[in-house]
Amino acid sequence: MSLKVPSIDRLAHELSKLPGIGAKTAQRLALGIIKKNEREVESLREALQDVKEKIRECDNCFCYTENPKECDFCLDPKRLDSPILCVVKSPTDIAKIESAGVFKGCYHVLHGCIAPLDGVGPEDLTLTELIKRVATLSKKGELIEVVVALDADMEGDTTSLYIKEILSDYEVSVTRLAHGVPMGSYIDFVDQRTLGRALENRVKL
User: Fold this and answer.
1) What distance, in Å, lies between the first and last C-alpha atoms of the chain?
2) How far is the C-alpha of 147 from the C-alpha of 47, rounded, in Å?
3) CA 133, CA 126: separation in Å to the nearest integer?
4) Residues facing 120 on adjacent strands
5) Is the dihedral of CA 104, 55, 93, 115 positive or negative?
6) Residues whose CB is less than 8 angstroms from the CB of residue 76 and which lie 6 or more positions away in sequence, other chains included
7) What is the DSSP pairing of strand 84-88 with strand 145-149?
8) pLDDT band at 181, cuts 50/70/90?
9) Which residue of 73, 74, 115, 147 sits 20 to 30 Å from the alpha carbon of 12, by its own alpha carbon?
10) What percent of the chain has pLDDT over 90?
């Protein structure tokens, strides 16, 4: 879909390259930007520039940060003594887990999952760095559990099994988030795969 206006079409095309942004959404965003005043557009430009200039990956967990070396999670003294390391797919997953207000341990960001059909292998993720962290922490007796918090899909399952295998030589317990019937839902409306997972992950009352 094109408005036959080169500058608008170019902006929409660039916006459509962002994850989750289709052609129609990109065009709506482009038209929305046109309606902004110069100050708002300049603020957007500065925000984009700041992201590119200031954001980097944490040297330890690979979450995004503006700090020179480690992120705020890795620098939090209350988390340094935690015996639990949570493995996530992306930094946005950390934000979601933190919003639950339950987990107080450390994180490790893979920046993706193993997906052979998309050409993503173990070497494309931070799995080597994960092994090094686990080896160091377990040797010091500072780590007893690695929680794999990945999506309940084929890529997540494949990556979870791979992590379990590569960490099998270390004295750590590898667990995964429970998957099953969501809170407040009815069994009648739960799909077969989710119900199956719920039965596999059942807990004692």
Assistant:
1) 56
2) 34
3) 11
4) 115
5) negative
6) none
7) parallel
8) confident
9) 115
10) 75
Note the Cα 197 to chain centre separation in Å. Answer: 22
Residue 82 CB partners (closer than 8 Å, separation 6+):
104, 105, 106
Burial 111-136 (b: 16+ CB within 10 A, else e): eebbbeeeebeeeebbbebbeebbee
Supply 174's token pair.
Answer: 């590898």
- The reported pLDDT for the residue numbered 110 is 98
Strands (E), 80-190: 84-88, 106-109, 145-149, 173-176
For residue 71, the number of C-alpha atoms closer than 13 Å in the C-beta half-sphere is 19
Nearest partner of 84 among 149, 9, 16, 157, judged by Cα: 149
Write down all domains in the chain, each with its CATH number in brackets. 6-54 (1.10.8.420), 57-183 (3.40.1360.10)
